[in-house]
Amino acid sequence: MATNSIIDDIIDGVLVQGEALPSEADLAEKLGVSRLTLREALRILQSQNVVGVVPGRRGTVNPISEWSGIEPILRAAIHAADPASASLQLIQVRRMIETGAAELAATRRSGEQLVALGARLDDMRLAHDAGDVDAFVAADIAFHDVIFEASGNVFLRVLLKPLGDFMYERRFETSAVTLVQEHAIAKHAAVLDAVERGDSADAKLAMDDHMNQTESDLVTYVLSRP
Predict the structure, then answer these.
(1) Do 116 and 215 belong to one domain?
(2) Same domain, yes or no: 123 and 169
(3) What is the pLDDT at residue 71?
(4) Does 45 share its domain with 91?
(5) Residues 188, 105 share a domain
(6) Residue ranges of the chain whose pLDDT lies below 70
(7) pLDDT given for residue 114 in this prediction
(8) Of the residues 68, 102, 123, which one is the last residue of a structural domain?
């Protein structure tokens, strides 16, 4: 996306905070987008106070301390942290949000949502057997999306949505390890069992156990590699 490319260039110092943006034509060419697409990106970034735009003049790059949009602020925060620290902090955030989501889902889920959870778990198993990491990660994320939906709380998914790209990258790293996939399948099955039984306490514990395993696998199979 053009917005993310501009944000990343600001974070990396390619576009200097407090200075003017390149001309519209130059910036569009650099990003490989049309000027119409660029204008829409700048409109979005202006609404997040990432850039200041004055009609008829070049926009300016606002300091990161003045940004107001959660997505650009998160990208800057993740960039500032070392990758290992950022990955572990992400699991901490997921634990806080997803254990509560599982707890709610156990008593609020519908029959259709239980079927969907079972189908996503089957998709994980099929992807594992086929050695398809992309499909495995997609099914993993879809399982958690159903948990959020089943919780009945519309804010839960919104809280993690800005972290989507970073979460996918971290999940792909760990899920590329066959043993990690096996761990994930077992932990997701335990969450589904508790949700299916309607046991909110067990569902919360099962999700917490899943986050523990996720953290352990991250440290063991990704962060410990040379």
Answers:
(1) yes
(2) yes
(3) 82
(4) no
(5) yes
(6) 81, 226
(7) 98
(8) 68
**Per-residue pLDDT tens over the stretch 13-34:** 999 999 999 988 999 999 999 9
Distance (Å, whole) CA 42 – CA 71: 15
Handedness of CA 173, 177, 179, 185 (dihedral sign): positive
Give me the number of domains the chain comprises.
2
Cα 159 to the center of its chain, rounded Å: 10
User: Which residues constitute the domain of residue 59?
Assistant: 2-68
Do 119 and 31 fall within a single domain?
A: no
108 and 60 housed in the same domain? no
Residue 73 is assigned to a structural domain of this protein: no
pLDDT at position 194 is 98
- How many alpha carbons lie under 13 Å from residue 131 in its C-beta half-sphere? 0
Predicted pLDDT of residue 158 = 80
Q: SS3 letters for the chain?
A: CHHHHHHHHHHCCCCCCCCECCCHHHHHHHHCCCHHHHHHHHHHHHHCCCEECCCCCCCEECCHHHCCCHHHHHHHHHHHCCHHHHHHHHHHHHHHHHHHHHHHHHHHCCHHHHHHHHHHHHHHHHHHHHCCHHHHHHHHHHHHHHHHHHHCCHHHHHHHHHHHHHHHHHHHHHHCCHHHHHHHHHHHHHHHHHHHHCCHHHHHHHHHHHHHHHHHHHHHHHHCCC
Residue 118 maps to which CATH number? 1.20.120.530
pTM of the entire predicted model: 0.77
Q: What is the pLDDT of residue 226?
A: 65
Is 10 inside a domain boundary?
yes
